[in-house]
């Protein structure tokens, strides 16, 4: 599977394209060399035959037919290996001289050239071989054939063709191997950047893309991305610090204002004034709750709660929360269902977990109409402990499911209901503290309203401590290259 993904990478496809271009150029070069070499050897053979014919023609002109027969016999006698082929016949193909017995059969060109095989059919006593010759007619109706044994030339051509084929094969194999290695090296660098970027997007803001110190293109890209991340984290921390400072600074005067309004409420006798003071106290309480939630989320995101991690029975904690909220559900005539698997244990902060559970159950009751259904479940799947809350309420559109964990974000359908948009942000922060992930889905996908199911997956007790230590090691400044003052955040789904 990994090999297939490697073959689909753009770097491998680029290397494959380069391989095709390179192989084509090598093929054209070898083909040109073969054409020139084979053509040269063929031309050299033809020139040798032409030279023999020219010599015989001169002998014929000076000595006649008898002289021609004599010179052919002398040359045959001097060439025991029969590299040069001679045959002089009458018009009826009766042999007068030569080293083959009968006239060969073969395809004859207009210029008189013929290619044939030396075999017993022509009276050849040796092994079967290839030959090339030229035919012309002598005065008096005589026929003369002069040729050369080209079997070695043909064998040499085969050797060259085989070498070219092997050379092309080796060239393609080496080009493919080189392309794969080059692609693999490039893909590894890209995978490191992609994996690190994915983890940064999932919340590990202190991570940085590693460099090799080679100052190549990838190192420059990594350094630019790291500088961009440093700048983004700096700006984010500045915004967060301002908002947290505002929340902290305003909480005290708001608390004093609330207390003064409460004293006013207790001291006034007029019913209308008492009602207005009561509404002012309620608004002040809502503002204080908002500021307290902001500060609580800020503390969670700075990872200040690892010291409170203890063994917690998730099913018992959820049971306590259900007992607290069941009465609120009954006031709205809702069906409150529980499915709590026993002995589901995690390692975590009991108070934070209880607040997360309470927020999710409270939201489900708040956004589910009367006579609706609320379901709470605890179960264990593999190494995960799962807390799940489902309802038959207004639900959350798919396009907004990834945004509801942002601070102050509220779904359009719920803006008329009381709330500050911080509940799910707090839930997300608590889940991240416990190395959890949150999955949102519709309870009834084919119905209107679809309802909402929120499942929080957290590691069961045994593996959690190791995962926390691994996360802390990953976030150490000396191993990430990040700003030691910037906290890292774990991702969620």
Automatic annotation (TrEMBL):
Residues 470-493 are annotated as: Disordered. It comes from the Bacteria. It catalyses: ATP + protein L-histidine = ADP + protein N-phospho-L-histidine. SMART domains: HAMP, HATPase_c, HisKA. Its EC number is 2.7.13.3. Residues 245-462 form the Histidine kinase domain. GO terms for cellular component: plasma membrane. SUPFAM superfamilies: ATPase domain of HSP90 chaperone/DNA topoisomerase II/histidine kinase, HAMP domain-like, Homodimeric domain of signal transducing histidine kinase. It is found in: Membrane. Keywords: Coiled coil, Kinase, Membrane, Phosphoprotein, Transferase, Transmembrane, Transmembrane helix, Two-component regulatory system. GO terms for molecular function: phosphorelay sensor kinase activity. Residues 184-237 form the HAMP domain. Residues 254-290 form a coiled coil. The chain crosses the membrane at residues 12-35, 163-182. This is histidine kinase. It comes from Marinobacter antarcticus. The lineage of its organism: Bacteria, Pseudomonadati, Pseudomonadota, Gammaproteobacteria, Pseudomonadales.
